[in-house]
Design brief:
The chain has about 675 residues and is an alpha/beta fold. The protein is built from 26 helices and 19 strands. β4 and β5 (about 300-305) form a beta hairpin. The N and C termini lie far apart (about 100 Å). Bound molecules: ligand C2E and calcium ion (2 copies).
C-alpha cells in the first residue's frame, strides 16, 4: 500500500500541545502520586510520544525530513509502538480503578502483559517487523501482510479484557464511574476508525481529547483529595478500603495521630499549620520510596496503606515513622514537636470492614496508645470491645436503662445557673460505666444513634415537663446532637413530636452541634439547622477549636453560643504563654457578638481568670459534675435560691431540697 498523498501534520501538532499542557498540569497538581496516577501519567506521555513519532514519520514520508533507512525504520517502529500501547495502558488504568492489579501478581499479570510483549518483539525483530510494515525500494511506506491481523488482535484482546473486568468488578465502582468508563472505552475504539483515512492523522488528537474528558470525569480531585494537605482524603480511604476487604491480600494500615494538634493549629494559625501538615505529608509520601499511599482521613491524623507488606516490615515502617515524629518539624523557621501515637493493623486479618477501619483510626484513647512505642492492634480486641459496647447499648435501649444527667452552666453576669447540659449515661451491669465518648461513636457506626438521641431528648423533655425547673430560674437545657444524628432527615420531626407531647416551648431547648459536624457536611447541616430553627430552636457550637472549620465559615451559621473546647483551657493552665490562644479565641467570639461558654472549669484560678476575660458562661467540675435530674433540681434550688420560687405564684415544688449532702458541689 504505497501512497503519494501528503500527510497532514496539524492534528498531531495539536495533540502534542494538548498532551504537553496536560502533563505539566498533572505534574504540578498538589497531590501525592499513587499507582493509578502513574498509569494515567504514562498514558498521556505515550500519547504525546505517539504524536511526536507520527509527526516524524509524516515528515519523512512527505520528504520534509531526509534520513537514513535505519532512522526511518526506528522512528516508524516507535510510532507504531507508542500508538499501539495505548489500548494496553487504558486497560491497566481501568484495572487500577477497580483496584485489581495491586495484589494479584503472577498469572493475571503475565496474561495482561503478553500482547504488549508481543508488540515489542514484533517491532524489534526485523523478520517479524516485515510482517507489520516496511519501506519498499522506492522508499515508500508499506503495511505488511500481518498489519491488520496483528493490531486488531491486540486491540480486540485488550477490549475483551476490559469488558470482562468491567463485568466482574462493576460493583466496586459507582454508577457514574461505570458509565464514564464505558463512554471512554467506546470513544477510544471509535477513534480507531478515524484511521480509515490515514492521511488525516486525526486519531491521536481524538484519543487525547477522550483522555481529557475521562480525566475530568473520573479523577475528580475535590472528592478524593484533602484540600488542606493535598493528600488523599477520608472519602478516598473509604472507597479504597472497600476494595481491600474483597481482595483478600495483606495490606497494613499505619495510623499516625498528632495528639496536641488542635492546640498547635490554633497557636500557629492556618498558614503555618497547613505548611507543617504538608511537610509531614510529603515526608510520609516519600520516605517509603513511594510504596505507601498516604491519606489524611481526619484532622491531625495521617494514615498509610502498605500494600504487599509482611507484618514485620510494616512494623518497621511504623517504627521509622514514630522515631521521625519524635523530633521536630520545621516550617518557616518555626519548629514544632507533636506528641504522636503510631499504631498498626492489618487488612483483612485484623480489620474486616470500613467501620472497623475508621474505629481503628479514630480511637485515640491515650490510655491505650503510648507515644513512646508503636502499638499493633489486634482485631480481636477492637472487635470485642466495640461488639460488647454495641451489645451493651442495645440492652440498655431495650431495657430502657439509658440515663440522662445534667451539668449546670454558670452565668457569670448574674452569678446564677440559667442553663445546663444534658449528658447521657450508660451503666452496664457487666461492663460498668461506659463513657459516652466511647459508646456514641460505636452507636453511630452500629446505627443506634437515632434511638439514643430520641431517648435523651425524651428524657430531657420529661424532666422539663415534670420538674418545671424554670421555677428556679433555669431557662434552657443544652442537648447534644451527634454528627450522624444531624444528617438524619427524620430528626426535625422527631424533635417536634416530642416537644408537642411534653408541651415544651422552643426557648427551653438549645441544641449543641459539634464543630466537626458542620465541617462533615456543610450543606446538609445548614438544611437541618434551618428546619430546626423554624421550630424556634437555637444552637450552640460545641468543641470550638477542635474541628477543621475556619472562623468566617462557622460564623455563617446561626450559633448563639460558642463552647470553647476544654482542651484550650487546660492547655492554657500548663504554661502561662499558652493563654494567648485562649484569649484570642475569646476575643474573636466576643468580637463577633456571640456568647462564649468555657467548659472544663475545675479550679478557682480558672474561674477568676475567665471571669476577668469577660466570659459569659462557665461549666465544669468546679461548679458541679453532671448529676441526675432530681439532684440537679436540688442544686438549682440551692444555688439560685428560693427567691425565685416565691416569685412563682401557683407552682408546687416537686423535688424540694431535703439534704444538703445530696449536692455534689456548691461553688456557684
Ligand atoms: P461534650 O459535649 O464536650 O461534653 C462535655 C464533657 O466534658 C462531658 O463528658 C462532661 O462530663 C465533661 N466535663 C465537664 N466539665 C468538666 C470538668 O471540669 N472536668 C472534666 N474532666 N470533665 C468535664 P461526658 O459526659 O463524658 O461526655 C463526653 C462527650 O460525649 C460529650 O462531650 C459529648 O460529645 C458526648 N455526649 C454526651 N452525652 C451525649 C448525648 O446525649 N448525645 C450525644 N450525641 N453525645 C453525647
Ligand atoms: Ca456538649
Ligand atoms: Ca464540648
Amino acid at each position: 500500500m504505497t501512497t503519494n498523498v501528503t500527510y497532514n501534520l496539524y492534528y498531531d501538532i495539536s495533540a502534542v500541545l494538548l498532551n504537553s499542557v496536560f502533563i505539566i498540569l498533572l505534574f504540578f497538581r498538589k497531590k501525592v502520586k499513587g499507582r493509578r496516577d502513574w498509569v494515567f501519567m504514562s498514558l498521556i506521555i505515550f500519547m504525546l510520544l505517539s504524536a511526536v513519532m507520527e509527526i516524524g514519520t509524516s515528515m519523512i514520508r512527505n520528504g520534509d525530513w531526509v534520513v537514513s533507512n535505519g532512522t526511518r525504520t526506528v522512528v516508524t517502529a516507535l510510532a507504531h509502538y507508542f500508538h499501539n500501547s495505548i489500548e494496553f495502558l487504558v486497560f491497566l488504568y481501568v484495572l487500577q480503578i477497580f483496584g485489581v492489579l495491586r495484589h494479584r501478581k503472577g498469572l493475571l499479570l503475565i496474561i495482561v502483559w503478553i500482547p504488549q510483549m508481543l508488540l515489542s518483539v514484533f517491532l524489534i525483530v526485523p523478520s517479524l517487523r516485515q510482517g507489520i510494515f516496511y519501506y519498499d525500494t522506492n522508499g515508500a511506506y508499506v503495511h505488511g501482510y500481518l498489519y491488520f491481523y496483528f493490531y486488531y488482535s491486540i486491540i480486540g484482546i485488550y477490549a475483551a479484557f476490559g469488558i470482562i473486568a468491567l463485568y466482574l468488578y462493576r460493583n466496586r465502582i459507582s454508577k457514574k464511574q461505570f458509565a464514564l468508563i464505558n463512554l471512554f472505552a467506546i470513544c477510544m475504539i471509535l477513534s480507531i476508525y478515524a484511521e480509515v483515512e490515514p492521511h488525516m492523522r486525526i486519531t491521536i488528537l481524538l484519543q487525547s481529547l477522550c483522555l481529557l474528558v475521562c480525566y475530568v470525569g473520573l479523577e475528580n480531585d475535590s472528592e478524593v483529595i484533602d484540600n488542606e494537605t493535598g493528600l488523599l482524603s477520608r472519602y478516598a480511604l473509604w472507597s479504597e478500603a472497600a476494595l481491600l476487604y474483597e481482595s483478600r491480600f495483606n495490606t497494613y494500615v499505619v495510623s499516625i495521630h498528632l495528639r496536641n494538634f488542635p492546640y498547635y493549629s490554633r497557636m500557629l494559625g492556618s498558614r503555618l499549620t497547613t505548611e507543617l501538615l504538608r511537610t509531614m505529608g510529603n515526608w510520609l509520601a516519600h520516605f517509603s520510596g513511594g510504596k505507601a499511599s498516604v491519606y489524611y482521613p481526619s484532622r491531625g491524623t495521617y494514615t498509610l496503606l502498605l500494600y504487599e507488606y509482611e507484618k514485620e516490615a510494616a512494623l518497621e515502617v511504623a517504627e521509622r515513622v514514630r522515631s521521625r515524629f519524635a523530633s521536630p518539624w520545621i516550617a518557616r523557621g518555626t519548629s514544632v514537636t507533636f506528641q504522636t501515637s503510631v499504631k498498626v493493623t492489618g487488612i483483612p486479618n485484623q480489620i474486616k470492614n470500613e467501620d472497623q477501619l475508621f474505629a481503628f483510626i479514630e480511637n485515640h484513647d491515650p490510655a491505650r496508645f503510648s507515644t513512646g512505642e508503636v502499638s499493633f492492634i489486634d482485631e480481636v480486641r477492637t472487635d470485642q470491645r466495640n461488639g460488647q459496647i454495641e451489645a451493651a447499648v442495645q440492652k440498655a435501649l431495650d431495657e430502657n436503662r439509658l440515663e440522662v444527667y445534667f451539668q449546670p452552666i454558670h452565668d457569670v453576669a448574674s452569678g446564677r445557673i440559667r442553663s445546663c447540659e444534658a449528658l447521657v449515661r450508660l451503666k452496664d451491669p457487666d461492663m460498668g460505666y461506659i463513657s459516652p465518648e466511647e459508646f456514641i461513636r460505636v452507636a453511630e457506626h452500629a446505627g443506634q444513634i437515632g434511638q439514643i438521641g430520641e431517648v435523651v431528648f425524651e428524657n430531657v423533655c420529661r424532666f422539663l415537663h415534670d420538674n418545671k425547673p424554670e421555677r428556679y430560674g433555669l431557662e434552657f437545657v443544652e442537648v447534644n446532637l451527634s454528627t450522624l444524628q444531624c444528617m438524619d432527615n427524620s430528626l426535625t420531626e422527631q424533635i417536634q413530636n416530642l416537644m408537642k407531647k411534653y408541651e415544651i416551648r422552643p426557648g427551653q431547648i438549645n441544641l449543641e452541634i459539634t464543630e466537626s459536624a458542620v465541617v462533615y457536611n456543610a450543606s446538609v447541616m445548614k438544611q437541618v439547622m434551618d428546619n430546626l430553627r423554624q421550630l424556634g430552636l437555637s444552637f450552640s457550637l460545641d468543641d470550638f477549636g477542635t474541628g477543621n472549620a475556619n472562623y468566617s465559615y462557622i460564623m455563617n451559621y446561626p450559633f448563639d453560643l460558642i463552647k470553647v473546647d476544654k482542651s484550650f483551657l487546660w492547655a492554657a493552665n500548663e504554661k502561662g504563654d499558652n493563654r494567648v490562644i485562649l484569649d484570642n479565641m475569646l476575643q474573636l467570639i466576643q468580637g463577633l457578638n456571640r456568647k462564649a461558654v468555657v467548659e472544663g472549669v475545675e479550679t478557682e484560678a480558672q474561674r477568676d481568670y475567665l471571669t476577668r476575660r469577660g466570659v459569659d458562661y462557665l461549666q465544669g467540675f468546679y461548679y458541679s459534675k453532671p448529676i441526675p435530674g432530681a439532684q440537679f433540681i436540688e442544686f438549682l434550688a440551692h444555688t439560685n435560691g428560693a427567691s425565685e420560687m416565691i416569685e412563682m405564684k401557683d407552682t408546687v415544688a416537686v423535688n424540694t431540697v431535703t439534704e444538703e449532702s445530696d449536692i455534689v458541689a456548691v461553688n456557684a
